[in-house]
Amino acid sequence: MGAEAEPTRIRLVCIGDDEVATAAHIRKWMDTRPLEDLEIEVQFDVDLSSALEILENGDADLLAISAVSWYMCQGAPDTMVTAALPRRDENHILVANDRLDYLPHKSIILAQNRLQRRQLRRYRSDFRVLDPVAFADMIGRKLPADSGLDLQSWMEDLRATKLITGFVSERHLFELANIDCRRHMLMTDARENSARFLPSPLNGLTLLISRKGFPKSLSEKIGDAESLTAWACEKTILDRIDLDIHDRLGMIVRHRQIPSLLNQAEQEKDLLRSTSLLDSEGDIVDIASMVEILIEIVDRAGERTLLLEKLVQKEDAETHSRLLISEWEDMLKVVTTEHAEDIRLGPARPPFLDL
What we know:
- This protein is of the alpha/beta class.
- The protein has helices spanning about 20-30, 50-55, 65-70, 115-125, 130-140, 150-160, 170-175, 215-220, 225-240, 260-265, 270-275, 315-335, and strands at about 10-15, 40-45, 60-65, 80-85, 95, 110, 130, 165-170, 185, 205-210, 250-255, 290-300, 305-315.
- The chain has twelve helices and 13 strands.
- The strands form three sheets. A five-stranded mixed β-sheet has the order 2-1-3-10-4, sandwiched between helices. Strands 7-6-8-5-9 form a five-stranded mixed β-sheet, with helices on both faces.
- The chain is globular.
């Protein structure tokens, strides 16, 4: 496709079947986003190697894939991330009869992801939060070979028979299975002084991949600027963080409006943030939206958290993402270093954060 021509029809291949969030995101995007005079033809249920071959041969213009999958495969030659769809369902859900605060004491909750297990322990230390594999071994039951719907059905059967209180899943799987139970979003923004649940890096992002030369004006028309910023910044940060701790990192990059930031600062009694956004007369310093970068890591028991938060101008977001890594590494080194015995500081002590 030449850079000088802007087509009126786009052929798109989507990687994954209905159990993959990407397909659900594409369908919602097709239903909700006005495409003006663009006609989009979508082919679903294609694996990565086949989709790349279709794209390379010119039989498709765009390839839709989750940002997590594209990051893990490290991209492909002669391709580029041309756009990103609006971020959807980046937070996991808890399937249970009641909200976290009202679940019984010592409730058993199953969660595949190490990050969510630690965040749930942080929220309530009495919870017994377990990996489904570990719980299957404990009760002597066979675990499904496949994750996704099969694993969710297995956990739902345990919940329905009251062997567990609840389990963590993803929204698109919950809706696909039509489970007769309440779901509760593990929210990014804390409410009523409760702990926040930052999502896993890149979660909820769907990328549109093209061959080099795709018209920039068209990619801007069909893509979402906030999601593209999130992809660029989160990828930059992940590239510089040890792969061994990726599964216990919480991270999100997003655009924030100034009034929303001021409301949050008032609720959290954050005087520093309030004064940084207002001048001496109490007027907003800059009416343009800003980019918020949040990254956290929770210790094994869920008792301690290292959180780094940045609020930067949109045009400087990628630069600050690179600078943030140095600060993060310095902080992480301090909290994970053992304290040797010292005459002045006292006896030897274990690290503050047990990863």
